[in-house]
Amino acid sequence: MGQYEKLLRSVLSGAKDKDLSFSDLRLVLEHLGFQCRIKGDHFIYFKDGIEEIINIQPLGNKAKPYQVKQVRTMILSYHLGGDSA
Asked: What is 3-80's CATH topology?
């Protein structure tokens, strides 16, 4: 299992929402095909075929737990994770 698969499972499990690094959350979104626009410390992710946008900001070097949950909800709602979702 590669690094991306481990990260995706971590996001989908919900067990490490408080401990996920911001760069790891960005890696998952970019691997899923999201494009990023940066405005200040706001990283705004969007993807064709997905109505919602994802706006994430770092909390130090960690991702905010509620934003990890938003990403998980979007992955599950749109079946973006392949076999893992």
From this structure: Metal Transport, Frataxin; Chain A (3.30.920)
Please, is 70 exposed, middle or buried when counting C-beta atoms within 10 Å of its C-beta (0-12, 13-18, 19+)?
A: middle
Give the span between the Cα atoms of 73 and 58, in whole angstroms.
19
The full set of domain ranges for the chain reads 3-80
Q: What is the distance between the alpha carbons of residues 79 and 73, in angstroms, rounded to a whole number? A: 10
Please compute the mean of the pLDDT values over residues 10-18 and round it to a whole number: 94
Distance of alpha carbon 78 from alpha carbon 59, whole angstroms: 27
DSSP reduced 3-state for 25: helix
Residue 74 CB neighbour total at 10 angstroms: 19
What angle, 0 to 180 degrees and rounded to 10, lies between the N-to-C axes of helices 3-13 and 22-31?
110
Say whether pLDDT at 58 is over 80: yes
